[in-house]
Specification:
mainly beta, two-stranded antiparallel sheet, single chain, globular
Length: 79
């Protein structure tokens, strides 16, 4: 079960029936991708924040950046 904030305010409880799902750190939609940006902690090799395809910036066939890593990399075009 997950608690997800709604765009207009309030919260929604999602039951996943035993399936563990990850949610986008930016928009709280299902997140099939992980950020491949620089690590946020010393023990990691990449950022690994869960992101949806709408919030991800594709940098190669199998590499994506979250919004924070995109801004930090100089790839932020003001979208």
């Amino acid at each position: 079960m997950s608690v997800v904030p709604l765009p207009g305010g309030g919260w929604m409880i999602l039951c996943s029936r035993g399936q563990v799902k990850t949610w986008c750190v930016h928009c709280h939609r299902p997140a099939p991708l992980l950020c491949d940006g620089p690590p946020r902690r010393a023990s990691a090799t990449t950022c690994d924040r869960p992101i949806c395809s709408g919030c991800a910036t594709k940098i190669s066939d199998d590499r994506h950046l979250c919004l924070d890593c995109r801004r930090g990399s100089g790839m932020d075009f003001g979208w």
